[in-house]
Amino acid sequence: MLPLTCVNCCHNALQTDLLGTTHGYCAEHRRVLMSPTELTCGRLLRKDLPLTRAREERALHERRYSPGAISTVREATPVNGTSTSSSPRDLALLRRDTVGDVIADYGRLDSKFATLAQLHRVPGPRAEVAMFSLGRAYVSRCVERKGPWTSGLHLLWWAKQGLGDEPQVELRDLRAEMPLPPTRHVELAKWAVVMLRLLFVSDVGHHAAQGHHRKVGALSSLAEDAVLGTGALDPGKLLRWIARTGAKRVEHALPQRDYDRLAVSLHVDAD
Amino acid sequence: MAPRRSEPTWRQKADPLYRGDDAAGVSLPDPVADASIVRHVLFLGGAGRPTPYPSTTAARAVAQHFAGSRGRVFVTSAPRAKGLGLGYIGRLELLKLPRGKGYGDARWPSAIEVMQARR
After folding, report:
1. Contact: A72, B70; criterion CB under 8 Å
2. Hey, is the C-beta of A74 within 8 angstroms of any chain B C-beta?
3. What residue spans define the domains of chain B?
4. ipTM rounded to 2 decimals
């Protein structure tokens, strides 16, 4: 049931099924997750699914699991302090992790976007996973609250800048024992990181299309087209597709001058 | 130097199959449920959704991964399952299906979801 657990939720920025820490952290409930493979809640926004499907599944999930409490995935019963923690000592330990230190402040600073901007400056695949996991949830929620699609503009620009970069996944980044050769485990983790990038871009494309921005809206199918264009769980193929096709589509959708103009209008709206 | 032994190949007729599931027991398949493999593998439709597939694996470690810390690993075999009226789809055969937008029971409108199921 791993796809239905906190491990696979955008609000848990510390983990994917293959990569990250042993313990998770829920930015919604603000708790360290001691057994994230056994936990879930009604706010689950799945990392592995395109936006429309992720939202449909969240609606179904909420019928069984309360959004107000973290529950066991099997029994759907709210958990007590044996499975999650908000103790100062455990949060202090979280903060000793570079990524954990940043996400522990998500929602505590002036804006959630400040945390996302900090994650952009932290190198490594775990920070990238954190940024785009939380980013997907952040933009989706902004739009659901009638905000503009441009709430994801800067994240989209950062995604564009790093779109074709190979994630530097090392053994130390891998989570969970898997009966796979380590090289294959690393490859699958790299594929998942690049796919999360593409899913984020597609999310923003989807929101832009709903907001009648035709150019960025054309990116809503980017992730789907990448999978159709590569047909394999091969990060090298995915990155070559991006170099050949994907990057050009994103450049066409959001060239520098459009980004500058939209960024200025965002700034004006914020004022 | 002695020649290196490769790991033995799993034998469908002789070797066990494992399933990680709830400690209380194996979730029962529903023979009339939606036969989509993608729906089954990705748990689309949510927890408790009916599925005609009781997934198993030749690797106990994989079953343990799915069982988690609170579940249990159950053991069966392909001949035993067939004897109880279940069909058996082997891993190699299964991996042929989720490509592109899927073939056969893996046919699905989203290539991303097919690929995630394959992963």
Report:
1. yes
2. yes
3. 16-118
4. 0.92
